[in-house]
């Protein structure tokens, strides 16, 4: 191959590789496989090795440099990189808009705002000269940052050469601006939740300490002297500002320019005419927060008109015309007052930290789970420690880390008790398990927690029978186990606090109504170790299908006999049941205490219904379906029921074995994974059309 031929081939390869880089890292789609793209990159590497004079700074091969740096050089920002004022309440936000009114001396309605997500990452500046990426730097103190160009070149979502991927209706002459002179783009470098989790799993496998949070990991990754380490962290760049004057008059136009140049930016960003629109946007994004692929900590609200924005000026290091409207914090520091043990329905002893009350995510937190002794040892937490406590969505708060530098020496280590703290019975820890368990079947904690579980909505679903009433019934010795609930009378209930004749009658009617239920819910209600909702459905379908039960209801005793007759090997032959689950089921139905409980439930007249007859059209038979996002008019449980009714298998995770991913509103990372794996994706309409709903 001549140098001229190589030059032509190299040019084409770079164009194709950059096109597919843009599709994959900016548009979240791909036209060719990863292997095919790697092959193109390999060919380009070979040609540039053969003809080194043809290597240019914008070549895809130049993303990772050679020798590590000894230090980072300082960079002076042409335009200061400012910080933002934080507000946390609607009142604080209104006070800010009032100040804008006074400074601009105009009515509020004349300066619409622009809202975008505030990514929890590291702010960086990208400088392009004649369209080629020449310098990338950190914020630093706002005036002077560090040159991290080589590290930023490894971030695939940062183009090494500016190109107009989409025509901007707002600024059709963008191409003229990027081919000559300098262009500065600013944005945030982040690590996705998925990548962060994967990196920490690898850390733990290597016996190394996991990273505290994605932001710190992103910052540390950008400050690696060896760019090859940065590349392995799979960082992502999200643009938020075009500093160079390219004719844009608003922040909205800046985002349009970012998109046209092939940069990722906030897809939720929008113009917000009124303060009320800001509050609605804030609440909407906060609801979606957990489902987003990146960590965010609020919104950035700016005066949309750039001329007005600059007219408002700067106070210290913060612009008057923008602020960060933060969400309630998901983490806070507090003190561990005590560590006590909680006993669950399966007998597991869980250490729970009792905390000095602290507000996290708008909720006052006073307790945090420590999961098990392995976690206690990993954290090194002691009574009296100052700790960082986190809470995500509706998840139970947990201790993220211990601030050991604040210890005084008076802190006390926690030890798992030798006996159950509730009943004084023996506890055991089986080989290969992290949990300690109470082995006393008559332990009051096991009975109490088991009752909570049994009468829950996914179990017997007894309307009006909640934890407080169960506690009262146990405290008054009116019940000893779940079967006793079905022997209660109105006379037993009326003397209890908050009960009258009417409420007592209503609860007894609810109990009577609950005596007939699907066998899958009954199996779930029993609280057998390892038997969750899906496994209970699997057992019901396999051993109590319509054909075997002849479509009629059957007794608890019939249910017991059928399952007790199965060996561990029989159970292991069922798809989805492994050795541990099979042994757990076998042991439960051969335990004398459990046999006695089932006998009492049978005497109480509990009747079980077989699984529904399958639909004539089993269009999803044998198909594994994953649902992500919200479907109109159907809860997640209802969608699963529909999938099962058509013969499908609802699954929680996307893998190569997944047949379809159904995508509703506000989908999560499962949607992206489905695209990466080439799995068939159905929107809600296609899903309903397929099933003729």
UniProtKB/TrEMBL annotation:
One of its GO terms (molecular function) is DNA ligase (NAD+) activity. It catalyses: NAD(+) + (deoxyribonucleotide)n-3'-hydroxyl + 5'-phospho-(deoxyribonucleotide)m = (deoxyribonucleotide)n+m + AMP + beta-nicotinamide D-nucleotide. The active site is at residue 118. One of its GO terms (biological process) is DNA replication. This is DNA ligase. Keywords: DNA damage, DNA repair, DNA replication, Ligase, Magnesium, Manganese, Metal-binding, NAD, Zinc. NAD(+) binds at residues 83-84, 116, 139, 188, 326. Residues 615-693 form the BRCT domain.
